[in-house]
Amino acid sequence: MPTTPDTPSALGSPARRSEGREKVTGAARYAAEHTPPGCAYAWPVPATIARGRVTSVDTAPATAVPGVIGVLTPYDAPRLGAADDPTLRLLQDLSVPHRGWYVALAVADTLEGARAAAATVRVTYETDPHDVILSVDHQRAYTPEEANGGHPAHREQGDPDAALAAAPVRIDCAYAVAPLHNHPMEPHSATADWDEERHHLTVHDSSQGAGPVRTALAALLKLTDEDVTVVSEHVGGGFGCKGTPRPHVVLAAMASRRYGRPVKLALPRNHLPATVGHRAPTLHRIRLGARTDGTLTALTHEVTTHTSRVREFVEQAAVPARVMYAVPDMRTIHRAVALDVPTPSWMRAPGEAPGMYALESAMDELAETLGIDPIELRVRNEPRTEPDSGLPFSSRHLVECLREGAERFGWADCREPRRQGPHLIGSGVAAATYPVLVAPSTARAHALPDGGYLVEINATDIGTGARTVLAQVAADALRVPLDRVSVAIGHTGLPAASLAGGSSGTGSWGWAVHDACTALTARLERHHGPLPTVGLSASADTTQSAKQKSPYSRHAFGAHFAEVRVDTITGEVRARRMLGVFAAGRILNPLTARSQFKGGMVMGLGMALTEHSTMDAEFGDFAESDLAAYHVPAHADVPTIEAHWIDEHDKHLNPMGSKGIGEIGIVGTAAAIGNAFCHATGHRLRELPLTPDRVLTALGGAG
Amino acid sequence: MAARERNPLRQQQAAPPSAPGPVHSRVALRVNGRSHVLDLDNRVTLLDALRERLDLTGSKKGCDHGQCGACTVLVDGRRANSCLLLAVTLDDSEIVTVEGLAAPDGALSPLQQAFLDHDAFQCGYCTPGQLCSAVGVLREAAAGHPSHVTGADAPADTARPVVLSAEEIAERLSGNLCRCGAYNGIAEAVAACAAAGTPDRTPPPTPDVIA
């Protein structure tokens, strides 16, 4: 990217977060922190049966609560228009597809009033038998056409069964990953304000993309897109569960329109598991065939997962096997069972996170069986082209990540497990991968008469540092210092852009910002004399370039290393050291990038050791529904984590040369920890997380 | 769309009996050095009073059950989960929220600056709680309060300050969850302030009253 000699490149510099001051002073306002005059409060009522239908709703006690404005029920709620997503068809009919499905909404002058009113709403039901438990041999398991992300559910090359039968060394293992919850720190919240006179709806929503929220609300409320403004200025995390419009925003908008008042709705934490998506449980069977030198000859990865009866979502956990290793005979297949459970959805690295846990555990088991170093086993199976598509990689530096990681971690020195008193200590390694995704976006850049520049794009900063990195992209394209650029995001009044998901934000938005700023630079070069009072502007639309199918397989890669300490008395597993080395194109901001890598690794640590949810067979409920029961890692769980990257120059990505970095940190972390546990104890646990009960059972079982 | 069904209980809703109204109390809240006299529903938590009545939205609601720490504020100099306190019980208490950590001229406190320097947050939602909690941690350690990891050989007289090792900081901040996983940056920021011995400008804790 051209820069004038006196303007150092902004990209690649560790610029601090541009909204940092607002966040450390409490000035940054999130969706529920707008209180328009006359604002009312809403509290939803979840269904208490796992399947059936509502037969009556007694709202009399609720409406008798002083300050209550009304209670919406399936009998009287406004009729909604078409919804692409059936989970948004709220209060439209009497059916209850799963426990926690909303069956009423109390609206009152105060938060306390709304909560009290919701608690008094009496709902009667007719119950149907329910089925909420996934099993690998479930009678209703089917192979869908596609898994999430548009991936074919089933791919097959060669004859994996024959190749397995002929393989001198075979691994055949089953792994299980429990349901997981995103639990961003900010619960889903919206403040909706319907202005009857202006025929306009203004919504502050905690969303990873204000654009899709506007589209959904307009369709549901039978308005035009122009009638709706959605603002997502500051968002308290998302990790996928704010990637699509969620029930809270629809309920808030419905209530505001019905009652003619602004309505604020912040979901109670324990409603989240049933209403905003979750990572579906995945049951894996992996079979590997290899020659005695470690060369893979066959691979099958079969995934069984659940979806809901409301909307199909199939976690694409067998997809990473299509990318990772050179195997001539391979089958990857997903099977799903539609159960009476909440609808699963995106959670950080859907597919890759659980899929690579299973695959990288199996590779470790193969290395152990063969007596080959697990790094060497991976190096020996490095493919020249993407195994599934046959496409060349735009860049692939997995081996370099493994080598650099081994060096930094001191891998050679920790190949012997150790015992210190009651503690067993071991180390593990695993690979990581995440695809490069890109979506069309538009942006506008203004040169202002005061010498400043304003970049406008409806991008979303859910904690990634989007504002900051987009300013860096703009500064370089404009060839001006970073402090001259301001960035406006998170508002549907800005040029349309893709949502913050699939690690695609920086690449997609940055591309549009780069193009707009490059066009503005050209305009400024042609302009003579002072700028007009309105300044000069230029726009860009990357629809053509971003939609072009790449002739390359484009992925980020990485290597995780972990050292764990297993307490043989308490069964507690603690990570003592964690290291990730990544190859993710050009790192545009080393400060915020490192935070994202490490943040992903912390979530991977949770997946490995503490996080799991249990579907209660009797009630159809997630038993761990709040932060006291569902254990996300806390300060004391997290060791010093190192994240590094290797220089990677890839011309086949976008003008910045970047790959997405928001999700790869979680991919492979749990496998590295599980492999370290096995190294430490000699016991392989094939079900996450590695909780003391499982650990003690395994250790005790050994006598 | 099928014809709308009738709620069989519709008739019963015609004349709802009126329930007794909520009990209100007058309370004087002192927040960040300013007094606010409020007429509050007794059910209002300190967190909701701050956010919904005083427009001090810096304190965050992450769980409303004392499980996440996002609502941490300082009450009479001690850190507390404001979602677990009823506002009416805090008449005459001195409350400091994240909005009260910077100097009146806007200069950031050392902890706030350290959070920026160490990239100790991503989404920022847990940040106000982490900051208020960290103020408490620095004070508690300075006052010699032991933690679970301080060890049996810690001085019993509590007068001697506890050295804030990485382990101490992590332990003492474990009531503040961060889903973005910025824990390392937060711990580094707190360690930097502990090492510098930087005083904060929030009011000191009220002395314990021992009966």
Top keywords for this entry?
heterodimer, A: 703 residues, alpha+beta, Aldehyde Oxidoreductase, domain 4, 7-stranded mixed β-sheet, 5-stranded mixed β-sheet, 26 strands, 26% helix, 24% strand, globular, B: 211 residues, Ubiquitin-like (UB roll), DNA polymerase, domain 1, 2 domains, 5 helices, 25% helix
Characterize the structure shown:
The complex is a heterodimer of chains A (703) and B (211). Among the domains of chain A are: 20-29 and 439-547, 2-Layer Sandwich (Aldehyde Oxidoreductase, domain 4); 34-129 and 189-271, Aldehyde oxidase/xanthine dehydrogenase, molybdopterin binding domain (Aldehyde Oxidoreductase, domain 4, 2-Layer Sandwich), CATH 3.30.365.10; 393-436 and 554-703, Aldehyde oxidase/xanthine dehydrogenase, molybdopterin binding domain (Aldehyde Oxidoreductase, domain 4), CATH 3.30.365. By secondary structure, chain A is of the alpha+beta class. Helix content of chain A is 26%, strand content 24%. Chain B folds into two domains: 24-100, Beta-grasp domain (Ubiquitin-like (UB roll), Roll), CATH 3.10.20; 110-196, [2Fe-2S]-binding domain (DNA polymerase, domain 1). Chain B has a five-stranded mixed sheet with strand order 2-1-5-3-4, sandwiched between helices. In chain B, a hairpin with a 2-residue loop joins strand 1 and strand 2. Chains A and B meet through helix 1, strand 2, helix 2, helix 3 and helix 15 of A and helix 1, helix 2, helix 3, helix 4 and helix 5 of B.
